[in-house]
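Feature request disguised as a bug: please show the residue count (134) next to Secreted protein in the output. Example input:
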Amino acid sequence: MRLQNHLILFTTLSHGAYATCFWSGINWDNAQDSARGAVEYWCRDASDSARLTGVFHSGDSKGRCSNLLLEGQTIGKRLDITVQWLGQDESVLEVDQCIQRLNDEIGCDLGGSKVTDEWSFTSDPNTGLCAKVS
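Example output, currently without the count:
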């Protein structure tokens, strides 16, 4: 199994994408579906000013937080997600790419981070709830 994982990592790295599953930290506690729902919301359904998609200039990043739920109840954990444009000039992050790339990192047991096509995507489960914004 380890050889297969190394081959997958090598194949990924050789095609210009750098993915890292976190090796330590907080797990999802079976709340991946809640995390995927939050990604869908922040990439597609949030108001224009809060949405993670759209035009980015070099170095721009956007981050959002969502409380994780299990069977409709908060579980004392949150999802911290971040996208960043690492390229020059400007680029547009499309809805489908936003959802796919952030969900890829939710597939890691402890969350993860990926750089692909000059975009950085991070999905990270953490203890505690999102801070309230006033």
